[in-house]
Amino acid sequence: MPTSYRVVEIIVPNHTPNKVKAELAITRIDPGQVPGLHLDAGRMDVGAFGLTPNLCGDVATTRPRAKISVTLDSYQDTAVRVIVTVREPPKGKQVAAAFQVSDTRNGAVVGGVTVVCTTPPYPNDLPSAAGPKNPCPLVLARDIFCVDPGADPRSASGPSGVISNTHPQDLVALVANDGKTDLTSTTLCLEHTDSSGVTVAPQVWHLGTVEPGGQFWATWAVDARQAIPGQYSATFVAQSDGFDPVRLRGQFRIGRAEKRAAAPRQAKKAAPAKKTHRS
User: Fold this and answer.
1) CATH number at residue 178
2) What is the distance between the alpha carbons of residues 235 and 90, in angstroms, rounded to a whole number?
3) Same domain, 51 and 142
4) Does 168 map to a domain?
5) Which listed site, 33, 91, 153, 211, has its alpha carbon 20 to 30 Å from 100?
6) How far apart are CA 14 and CA 142, in angstroms?
7) pTM reported for the whole predicted model
8) How many other C-beta atoms are found inside a 10 Å radius of the C-beta of residue 251?
9) Nearest Cα to 199, choosing from 51, 7, 22?
10) Omega into 120 within 30° of 0, i.e. cis?
């Protein structure tokens, strides 16, 4: 049976002004324990699985571990990879495996991520868990777009929804507070870019306080020169005090950016996002 490698990048954030040490561990779990995930599949033949801070190494030679430690400076965020070695089943057979990554700090579990591997691929538009009961009202105010590296994100230099495969760029997500109250301790991260193969520099934006109607242009350095042409969805995670985290999705395609887009129009004057930290 052929062997394949399932690779997932996970952002490990530090939302505090203090230096912290995160102990990360991965364990295999029953896919039937994942809320909202409904699979009629057999058990996946997993050869090995683990975590690694090495984001650039060859997955075939990298040796991931069941437990790793990462040290984060104040408002620093980093990324680690989950690597799962899979012996693929015969054609037409459905199999699945699930893993739980836990984040322990000062002896207490403070967060975690569930990773699910399936053959054939699980549809991206189906939820893996129930929606939030009290969703953060931060929304995408327009389609995502790209600008040249380091350019002012408030003036678009490329068409909406396109990541060029000819040179590195900054991906821009314009977000706004669509609620009626201030959002405090607000953060925004780019969780993934689907199966596009786009390389993303891990980063979490710490927006602080965002007033009602307030907008913020968040950027991520991306490189799509080795990406797979096609249509994809970028998923962002927004959260703030008093609300449940939400996923925001922006559609994009990989290709040559030939047309120029006009700068975004604002329906009303943007209120500033306060106490912003870029990690």
Assistant:
1) 2.60.40.10
2) 32
3) no
4) yes
5) 91
6) 28
7) 0.60
8) 13
9) 7
10) yes
